[in-house]
Amino acid sequence: MDMTKPARKEVIEKTKVVEIKKGSSVFDEYVSAECNELWAVFIWVRSGTILQTPHVLFFDTKEEASEFAGKIQIGIPVSDQLDIGRVANEECDFEGIRESIDLNKIRTEADAEADEKDSLEVTYRILSDAGVINFESRELCGCVIDFIGADRITFLKSDFLDKWKFVAAYEYCSMKYSSTAPATISSFCLYSYFVLNDKFYAGYMLRDLEFIIHGVEAEAQKAADKKKMAGEKGKAASKRGRNDRRMALLEAMETFAKRNPDMIAFGDKEIARLSLPKCVDTDPTLWAQGRKQVGEYLDEIRRGEAGPDAKARYHALFPAKTA
């Protein structure tokens, strides 16, 4: 398993364009000096089996926001159409990531208990496999040091003391990999534990890693995809079956009317009732259901919902009455 690749399929489920009103704190913070309006595109993304997560992007005009939202395809993986969150690309918000990290100076001196060290081993193993740290020495790999830069390293050492390596690893993974990559989750787990002193959230991250590494997430996603596919196939099969019954009924009615032209005067419903037994005898499997929907089939054929050809054939049998 590649620890640097997304472990979950992130799919866009819905979007919404919203105007940010003047006077709001959001408007004052994000509006550009050249504009007097601010628009937001809210994007709801489902990551694997986790609940939807909202993302927001700001635009100077309604036209720009609407154009961007219009290009988004609902139900299509995020990676296939746009970058949301922390991903490896030139537009990654490095400064935004660093600002959020710098706000969290060490809150307390957090050290792992003996029994907790074993639990945290998996995070070191994953980061080692991803080429972020050396598993034995726990030292950062050269690529991380080079990427972050000497000045930033000096700053991290000054502000985060002996916990700076956890910050550096988290910063590196956040800027390089998807937020659902095991390496990013592992780095955030260690960052939460040692820097934020949030053992509860670190434990949640560990559970999340176990869920991913042991394939539970993949199996759950596979089951969800299979269920969705089965539902779509079921709907398609049901639609085909309904259309086949409409066509079979119309053909039987045409045959019956040709042999009994005087009966046409009794109307479409009576002709359908008399033609139905022949339909059932010809294809009992097709008519295992739908016998009580004959009236609906006739209405759909007459309105053209079964296609223009079927509508024309119906009206050839039962011409519209004229005054």
| Sequence stretches where pLDDT stays below 50 over 5 or more residues | 83-92, 106-110
Number of strands: 3
Order of helices and strands: EHEEHHHHHHHHHHHH
Rounded Rg: 31 Å
Q: What is the CA–CA distance across the termini?
A: 76 Å
Q: Calculate the mean pLDDT score and round it.
A: 78
| Helix-strand category | mainly alpha
What amount of the residues lies in strands?
5-15%
Count of runs of 4 or more consecutive helical residues:
13
The share of residues in helices is 55-70%
What strand order characterises the main sheet?
Answer: 1-2-3
Shape: elongated
Largest β-sheet summary: 3 strands, antiparallel
Kindly list the characteristics that best describe this protein.
single chain; 323 residues; mainly alpha; 13 helices; elongated
